[in-house]
Amino acid sequence: MNRAQKMAWVCVICISLAITAALIVLLIHFLVGRPKALYAVAIPCVGAPLGGLICLFIPKDKAKVTRDERDLMIKKNAAHAGFIGAFLFTCFACITPFFVLGPKAVISVKWLPQIWFGTWVAQFFFYSLTIIVDYGRADKGENS
Amino acid sequence: MNKLQKIALLNFSLAGTCLILQLIRLAAGTSLISLFVSTVTLALMCVMMVSYFRRKSLVKQGGGEYDERDRSIHTTAALYGLMTAFLVSFLTTFLAFLIVGPGGELEIGYVLGMFLLSANSFFFAESAVVLIKYGRRGMDDE
């Protein structure tokens, strides 16, 4: 497993845990009715930077050639998937309130940074996930 | 100029028009102009989507019109387009937050407008990169 794969795994695990924690807190909010629990939507925004911070401590590969043509192609593909995921998240986050709250509703401006951070987390998540999937596919039959 | 370039040129001009209309909408701000601009923007975006899928069908047909170089150009262009949409979505949310202030409220239509703006900027940047890349490397084809 190379450094990019390790980083991708760390990011996916951190973001998945953060999203799960946020969902649990939101569930408690809807069941018990604690208004401050709504701030739990910010938990994934902490999980992603935490993953990035842990990635800084992953040692660099010691091999002479650390990346080749295939690695570059996988990274480009992952960047593509990451941005598509982020774009879809923005689409979902902007269109859903329109249909849920109605066309004449107003929303607090505090939700805008949340939408953008969510977009950023989605980009990070799909980027890492594509790296894991692509390396997983490409590594078949190899001894790495 | 091949078919793919023509489609990119069409998308570029339509997305440019949409962006100018969005700016007019921001400057004018009245509900009548807003409604008109939103309707025209949606119509133009439908045309852009149709031409985008027309390009996809050309790609699927294969043949001599789409080779490895075209594929590389379109992948890079899509990446640049998505990056631009990402940046525009960041800028619009950030600016709206700064202008309205942390305690303010925003009409839901503006949030939808932000998404339309970022979708428009995707088409704009994607077609611009396609035109630039063909312009740089396609001179010896003609």
Can you describe this structure?
Chain A is mainly α and 144 residues long. Helix content of chain A is 72%, strand content 2%. Chain A contains 4 helices and 1 strand. Chain B has 142 residues and is mostly helical. Chain B has one domain (3-141). Chain B contains 4 helices and 1 strand. In chain B, helix 1 (3-28) runs antiparallel to helix 4 (108-137). The model of chain B has no long low-confidence stretch (mean pLDDT 81). The chains are: A mainly alpha (144), B mainly alpha (142). Chain A binds chain B through residues 76, 79-80, 83-84, 86-87, 90-91, 94-95, 97-98, 101-110, 112-113, 115-116, 119, 123, and chain B through 75, 78-79, 82-83, 85-86, 89-90, 93-94, 96-97, 100-109, 111-112, 114-115, 118-119, 122. Strand 1 of chain A pairs antiparallel with strand 1 (105-107) of chain B.
Report Rg of chain B. 17 Å
| Mean pLDDT over the full residue set of chain A | 81
Specify the structural class of chain B: mainly alpha
**What proportion of the residues of chain A form beta strands (DSSP E)?**
under 5%
Give unreliable regions of chain B as ranges: none
Name the helix and strand elements of chain A from N-terminus to C-terminus, one letter apiece.
HHHEH
How helix-rich are the residues of chain A, as a percent range?
Answer: over 70%
In total, the number of domains of chain B comes to 1
> Largest sheet of chain A, if any?
none
Strand tally of chain B: 1
Q: For the report, how would you describe the main beta sheet of chain B?
A: none
- Please report the number of helical segments of chain B: 4
Oligomer: heterodimer
